[in-house]
Amino acid sequence: MVIYKDGKIYLKIVFWGMGASGKTTILKTLYRITKESKKDIVPIGELQIIEKASGATLYFDRGLFQSTKQKEVYYRVYTVAGQKGFTPLRKKIFDKTDDQTDAVIFVVDSRTKFLEDNLESLLELKTMANDRLIKEIPMIVMLNKQDLDDIIDEEDFKLILKDEKLWYEPKNKLYIWNPIIYTSCALYEQKKDVYRSFHETARRAVLYHVYGEGKAPIEIDISKNSIKAI
After folding, report:
1. CA separation for the pair 16, 141 (Å, rounded)
2. CATH numbers and ranges of domains, the chain
3. What's the rounded Cα separation, in Å, for the pair 191 and 195?
4. Distance between CA 105 and CA 97 in Å, rounded?
5. First-to-last CA distance in the chain?
6. CB 154 within 8 A of CB 194
7. Which of 3, 10, 23, 76 is most buried (CB neighbours < 10 A)?
8. Other Cβ atoms within 10 Å of 149 Cβ, number
9. Phi, then psi, of 68 in degrees rounded to 5
10. DSSP percent split of the chain into helix, strand, coil, nearest 5
11. Is the dihedral of CA 31, 117, 136, 193 positive or negative?
């Protein structure tokens, strides 16, 4: 839910996905990239990482980022604990009554042996979003761990999105807001599309807020040439 405070705008972005899909690693890599390189979005303060000794997220991770082009715009970024026993906590983070999510990045463990686990996580997200994904909540997909063997590819996951009614055909006005699917590796040494996917999510969150009043704006040209990325 967009929060206005002291002339500032705060948008909430959540990394969602099955346990051990790489959400915390992605957030850490994003933080390092934006801290060390000159980017349009930069971190404010330190990350808050709450994890077990094993590295699994115990509660949630979060960080605060700011647009350098629109300095009044901030992004509150969260990850959710992906393990099956944390469903009530995920719901609280994603859909708290007075603090709902403005955009979501769905993180997939690309190994084919985890296809069912990824699907289960997607279905839970879809249920919690209550038919608001894409229509009111922009969604980006990261196929993580693409550096490993025996993985699903972009077309594979696009079929899943179509089956779950999370992909629109060209004749539908929501077609321009279909999830972009990024093939990624979250490790900093490779950091493939980590910043790019986050930047696009942040851009869409702002466009939904500014041009759609909280919904997918369908009467505008969303190309980066016509609307400057935030």
Report:
1. 10
2. 3-211 (3.40.50.300)
3. 8
4. 20
5. 18
6. no
7. 23
8. 7
9. -85, -15
10. 35, 30, 35
11. positive
Helix (H) or strand (E) holding 106, with range, is strand 103-109
Minimal CA–CA distance to 41: which of 134, 103, 122? 103
Could you read off the pLDDT tens digit of each residue along the chain, which spans 230 residues? Answer: 799 999 999 999 999 999 999 999 999 999 999 999 989 999 999 999 876 655 555 568 999 999 999 999 999 999 999 888 889 999 999 998 789 999 999 999 999 999 999 999 999 999 999 999 999 999 999 999 999 999 999 999 999 999 999 999 999 999 999 999 999 999 999 888 999 999 999 999 999 999 999 999 987 766 654 445 44
Tokens at residue 119, please?
Answer: 């699907």
User: H or E segment at 162?
Assistant: helix 154-163
Residues 74, 42: Cα–Cα separation, whole Å:
9
Question: CA angle at residue 183 from 177 to 184, to 5 degrees?
Answer: 120
How much is the CA Rg of the chain, to the nearest whole Å? 16
